[in-house]
Write a structure and sequence with these properties.
This is Na(+)-translocating NADH-quinone reductase subunit E. By secondary structure, the chain is mainly alpha-helical. It has 2 helices and no strands. The termini are far apart. The relative contact order is 0.05.
């Protein structure tokens, strides 16, 4: 049982160290190979136009930007 608790404590320490590093560096977590951009793919799907969920998100973001732009205070 002591081995399991020790292993769990080590994992918690590693996770805490990664969190502290993330907080101080403010960098996004990224892979070492560059992802899809490394092989010349601009987006994850080859759809000619965005899906409905993405259109809704973009419309919502545009409304929020417009609201912030027209806000008096």
């Amino acid at each position: 049982m002591a081995i399991y608790l020790t292993t769990f404590a080590v994992f918690l320490l590693v996770i805490a160290a990664m969190a502290v590093g993330y907080i101080f560096q403010r960098k996004t977590v990224s892979g070492s190979c560059g992802g899809l951009d490394g092989i010349g793919i601009a987006k994850e799907c080859d759809c000619p136009e965005p899906c409905d969920a993405r259109k809704k998100r973009e419309a919502r973001a545009a409304r929020q930007e417009e609201w912030k732009k027209n806000q008096i205070i």
